[in-house]
Design brief:
This protein is α+β, with helices and mostly antiparallel strands. The chain has seven helices and seven strands; from the N terminus they run αβααβββββααβαα. α6 crosses α7.
């Protein structure tokens, strides 16, 4: 055991240097959510306690999982969209004096660096277009855009036409500093792991 510790010390840790993070420097944490226009009309989603969907046992969901490249023209219900958004980024609690959130998915150090956008084509009660999910409020708002969103999404996904023509496509962006504030240079590895959880 002593030989192994000596090996680690001389071959690994000797050349590894931790940088002091902004958190350790007592710099305030970044906002938990990207700012948005205060004058936008927010759309209330179905509250988690009111969900009637999403009751399938996990074992059954795993057994039935498969990839699809063709979709029906049937729209998602507003409740199904609400459930999917909550399942992907729902906030259980704001904690650490407003510096972190506990959500439905794990994130290294509770940093949750992702912002959720939606390209909606077919969801009951919503016009087609680009939307942003406000996870802290569990609400949506519509973002005016120009051009054919479905085509632009297909191109962004290397011309996989099924993406832009699905009922809804989730698009995640990242605010790297949310993770860098705590983890400095290793933050990008944590962000990649967090993307897998989403």
């Amino acid at each position: 055991m002593e030989e192994y510790r000596e090996f680690l010390k001389t071959n690994i840790w000797e050349n590894f240097r931790w940088e002091e993070t902004d958190q350790q420097k007592n710099i305030p944490p970044p906002p938990l959510q990207k700012e948005y226009p205060t004058d936008v009309k927010q759309i209330d989603l179905v509250a988690p306690e009111e969900f009637t969907v999403g009751k399938m046992p996990l074992i059954d969901a795993i057994k039935r999982r498969k990839s699809h490249r063709k979709y029906s023209e049937e729209p998602l219900t507003f409740e199904e969209l609400s459930f999917l958004l909550w399942a992907a980024q729902g906030v259980h609690e704001v904690w650490r004096a407003g510096a972190a959130t506990r959500r439905t998915v794990p994130s290294g150090g509770s940093r949750h660096p992702f912002e959720t956008y939606l390209v909606i084509n077919r969801v009951e009660g919503l016009e087609s277009g680009l939307y942003r999910y406000l996870a802290l409020e569990h609400k949506l708002y519509h973002i005016p855009t120009e051009g054919d969103l479905a085509e632009r999404l297909d191109i962004a996904c290397r011309n996989q036409k099924f993406v832009g023509h699905s009922a809804v496509a989730f698009v995640w962006t990242v605010i790297p500093y949310r993770a860098e504030w705590r983890y400095d240079k290793v933050a990008h590895k944590i962000i990649a792991l967090d993307a897998g959880h989403l």
